[in-house]
Amino acid sequence: MNGTAALRRSVGGGGGAAGGGTVEPVPVATLVVYKDDAGYGMKVSGDNPVYVQSVKEGGAAARAGLHAGDKIIKVNGVNVMQSTHTDVVQLIKYIDALFGNETE
């Protein structure tokens, strides 16, 4: 196995005020993506926050439950909501370098 990236993401819509002015919480999921020989199997885009642009069918991200349009909230415990695309990619690459070919 290769490196891992633990990603928190928001799922679904919600989060807006409904008629009575109450704000519904946005559901959040914590997913662990185990990098395989083909990589993480996803492309990310955007800044502040970074979103999953696409997920390779059958790839590591798809197997972990990630979907195009998901907002990346944390990478390996680090809040990336105000991070740029470049910062998030560098953080994921740092995780690869840190863990090498091992998994937690």
Q: Keywords, please?
A:
six-stranded antiparallel β-sheet; about 100 residues; PDZ_sf; alpha+beta; two-stranded antiparallel sheet; 8 strands
Structural features, described:
The chain has helices at residues 60-64, 85-99; strands at residues 4-10, 17-18, 22-23, 28-34, 42-45, 50-55, 71-75, 78-79. With 104 residues, the protein is an alpha+beta fold. Strands 1, 4, 5, 6, 7 and 8 form a 6-stranded antiparallel β-sheet that branches. Strands 2-3 form a two-stranded antiparallel sheet. The N and C termini lie close together (10 Å).
In short:
The chain has helices at residues 60-64, 85-99, and strands at residues 4-10, 17-18, 22-23, 28-34, 42-45, 50-55, 71-75, 78-79. By secondary structure, it is an alpha+beta fold. The longest helix has 15 residues, at 85-99.
Major beta-sheet overview = 6 strands, antiparallel
User: What letter string, H or E per element, gives the SSE order?
Assistant: EEEEEEHEEH
Described by the principal axes of the CA atoms, the overall outline is globular
End-to-end separation: 10 Å
Low-confidence stretches: none
How much of the residues is beta strand, in percent?
25-35%
What is the number of strand segments?
A: 8
CA radius of gyration = 14 Å
Mean pLDDT across residues: 79
**Helical percent range?**
10-25%
**Pairing-aware structural class of the strands and helices?**
alpha+beta
Count helical runs. 2
